[in-house]
Inverse folding.
């Protein structure tokens, strides 16, 4: 029986060499250039911020897994990735207690009390950001640092993000601060602007996302749908009148690229079927723009993705793949009230795990 | 007498309303920003619960079965209006801080639940003991939850500063999500404690059996009987 052609086994028959560890470490590597850029723009303190966040997540994951009597799996890098993403969605000037508490909340409550990796309802990094936004509202909305302020004598120069200016003072005021239209967009694209640690550089995040697509870790559906919807809505509703908005401006500001490529594509909290992914991305993009235009916050990516996370089970159910087998036998007509048996949830491995 | 004591004490731990019966969660989550709010709410509930149990138990034989819920609500609503007026007269600041949640005592699940499950089936003295016990348990729970949230969220307890000088309030705890997280952690801790107690009881039973060889025969004898 050594001939592999005659190897008999039960399903699944398609196998892959990818492991949780390889995926998580690849994603972390794809995110790394942005951290280097952030350290250069906002000062080396962001490295400390990321270290606290990652350390807090790893420690809490290990402690929770030990406390709950599970196997300790901090080596697979999922806690490291959550910590890194958590640091990326914090303003660079926050006190170091914030990433610590955020990591505790993300790991202990958002992830492990819901069942650990694969069973968590929400993206742990984003729910931790929402938690910090409620718990420390002042630090989370004012701790922005102007680019290259750390080169000067001042400790930190607080400033306002482009989206904040856009929301409260209008486009003219924003371009007055960040230069003419083309120059401002170029700076935003390269990442030389105030913002959260990991959201500034559209270029680096785009490259990282393309690497993930090339390595087949994520598919193009969610990012394309989310960015496309956001651009369309920005074009239609972003200007003074309809169809005069500036789609590029809304794509390169805020956390749009970080959210689309690295947050919304989290395996656990996003759908697995291609059409479901498109719907999920469209929903995330539309909610983001709704919050940016009509909501109380200048930025909406975090809450948009969290809301779509809530809808994920519904979307996943609506796009259940067809069973590839002979039709189930019709039930006997005798018990009339009994509904027809539903097909077994054998769509994919992940699909089944999510519903247990 | 033993019956009264039993009905009173079950509300204090074994069937403590918000944490064991998981009833009356609306005020538990909404008015526990401070320990004194929780305590005041609990006091109002003790009053309503004991008197509604008393009245319902007294008239339980003449309430028609089909409209009993409406009767319970009417009785509870009259009592809540009374307590509302009393609070307006004597503890106006508390009345203001509890706001809409005083009238909402009418639809508090603890009131209706005890009326339906206990007062409508038991004599007056037991119903009053049950109402008082449940009310005291409810007050204890709300005060405890309020104290935890106030200590971490504002650094004070019953309005007095208790944390050290440089303590930075953990504002999350006094917001709505903090109530949910706190309640969840308390429920989890209570379940854990119960499981631990049961394990210990079982272990103690086994140890006692080892000491007394006759016990080893008991299960076999029971099996034969059954």
């Amino acid at each position: 029986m050594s001939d592999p052609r005659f190897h008999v086994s039960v399903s699944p028959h398609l196998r892959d060499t990818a492991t949780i560890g390889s995926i998580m470490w690849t994603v972390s590597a794809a995110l790394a250039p942005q951290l280097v850029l952030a350290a250069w723009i906002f000062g080396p303190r962001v490295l400390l911020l990321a270290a606290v966040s990652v350390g807090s997540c790893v420690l809490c994951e290990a402690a929770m897994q030990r406390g709950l009597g599970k196997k300790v799996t901090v080596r697979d890098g999922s806690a490291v990735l959550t910590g890194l993403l958590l640091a990326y969605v914090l303003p660079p000037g926050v006190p170091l207690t914030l990433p610590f508490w955020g990591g505790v909340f993300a790991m202990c409550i958002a992830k492990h009390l819901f069942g650990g990796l694969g069973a968590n309802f929400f993206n742990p990094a984003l729910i931790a950001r929402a938690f910090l936004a409620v718990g420390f509202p002042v630090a989370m909305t004012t701790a922005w640092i102007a680019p290259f302020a750390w080169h000067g004598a001042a400790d930190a120069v607080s400033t306002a993000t482009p989206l904040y200016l856009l929301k409260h003072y209008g486009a003219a005021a924003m371009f007055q601060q960040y230069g003419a239209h083309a120059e401002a967009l170029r700076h935003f694209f390269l990442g030389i602007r105030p913002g959260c640690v990991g959201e500034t550089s559209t270029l680096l995040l785009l490259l990282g996302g393309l690497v993930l697509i090339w390595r087949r870790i994520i598919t193009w559906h969610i990012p394309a749908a989310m960015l496309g919807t956001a651009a369309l809505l920005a074009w239609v509703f972003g200007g003074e009148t309809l169809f005069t908005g500036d789609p590029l401006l809304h794509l390169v500001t805020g956390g749009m690229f970080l959210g689309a490529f690295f947050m919304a594509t989290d395996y656990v909290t996003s759908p697995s079927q291609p059409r479901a992914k498109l719907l999920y991305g469209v929903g995330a993009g539309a909610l983001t723009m709704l919050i940016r235009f009509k909501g109380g916050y200048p930025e909406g990516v975090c809450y948009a993705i969290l809301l779509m996370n809530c809808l994920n089970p519904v979307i996943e159910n609506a796009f259940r793949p067809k069973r590839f087998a002979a039709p189930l036998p019709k039930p006997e007509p005798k018990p009339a009230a009994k509904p027809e048996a539903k097909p077994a949830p054998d769509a994919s491995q992940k699909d089944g795990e999510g519903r247990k | 007498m033993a019956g009264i004591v039993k009905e009173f004490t079950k509300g204090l731990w074994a069937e403590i309303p918000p944490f064991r019966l998981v009833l009356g969660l609306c005020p538990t989550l909404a008015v526990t920003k401070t320990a004194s709010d929780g305590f005041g709410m609990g006091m109002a509930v003790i009053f309503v619960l004991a008197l509604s149990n008393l009245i319902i138990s007294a008239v339980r034989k003449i309430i028609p079965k089909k409209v009993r819920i409406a009767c319970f609500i009417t009785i509870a609503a009259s009592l809540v209006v009374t307590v509302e007026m009393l609070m307006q007269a004597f503890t106006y600041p508390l009345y203001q801080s509890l706001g809409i949640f005083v009238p909402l005592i009418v639809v508090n699940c603890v009131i209706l639940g005890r009326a339906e499950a206990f007062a409508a089936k038991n004599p007056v003295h037991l119903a009053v003991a049950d109402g008082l016990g449940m009310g005291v348990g409810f007050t204890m729970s709300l005060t405890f939850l309020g104290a935890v949230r106030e200590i971490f969220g504002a650094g004070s307890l019953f309005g007095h500063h208790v944390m050290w000088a440089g303590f930075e309030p953990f504002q999350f705890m006094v917001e709505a999500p903090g109530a949910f997280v706190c309640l969840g952690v308390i429920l989890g801790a209570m379940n854990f404690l119960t499981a631990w107690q049961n394990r210990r009881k079982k272990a103690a039973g086994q140890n006692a059996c080892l000491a007394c060889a006759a016990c080893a025969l008991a299960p076999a004898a029971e099996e034969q009987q059954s």
Remarks:
- Chain B has a mean pLDDT of 86.
- Chain B touches chain A at residues 168, 170-173, 175, 177, 181, 184, 188 (CB under 8 Å).
- The longest helix of chain B spans residues 176-211.
- Residues 30 and 198 of chain B are 33 Å apart (CA to CA).
